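Hey everyone, long-time lurker, first post.

I ran two proteins through the pipeline my lab uses and got sequence/structure pairs for each. Pasting them in order. The first:
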Amino acid sequence: MQHWRKTTPDKQPRDFVHHWFKAFDQLPQDPAWFVQHADDALHLMTPDGTFRGTDGFRQWYQTLRLSFKPGIDHQLERIEVSHLEKNHYQVNLLVRIEAETLNSEATTIMAREVRRIAIDPQDNIKIFDYRVELV
């Protein structure tokens, strides 16, 4: 059971994002945990392009694995959660990313992220819109 499922609905999106980045920092070879949280109709816009659905998420994730070493450090500078309607939320993030490329170059990236998520009655979270913009 994921720890965000033990929290109140207003805290679930925030707890989920923290867990997501903690897992993402390791860049596991198998992205299954992340894919289970991507809606089949996911719309993902990043500096690397636009990706759709779970296959698109896998493609984007693979480009990151081909660019960065595991051990990334996502530092949440700001997180704001807005309730949109029923079980839908928008999560606005400002993230500082400390990473090392496969060429052993240290890099710092600032990104603004917007995620729209849905939480079902069993507290499963799906991301249906995910936008990343470099700042």
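...and the second, right after it:
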Amino acid sequence: MITMRRFLLELIFAALASIICVLYILFPEPHLMALFVFVAQPMFIFTILSFSIRMLKGARQKKVS
């Protein structure tokens, strides 16, 4: 069973990126656009890649095809 502590960094990054996205949608200002482009999107990419890598490693260890 996967514990959430293993994915704490991914959860924090996804939450922060989501907050930046919501702020940008509600208040479309230039500095929030810069945060969205240069901070939130890389956070989402890191979260997706990190989660995928960990899930693939776990599947390989359990020999799931």
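Reply from user beta_strand_b:
Welcome! Quick read of the second one: The two ends are 18 Å apart (CA to CA). Helices lie at 8-26, 30-61.
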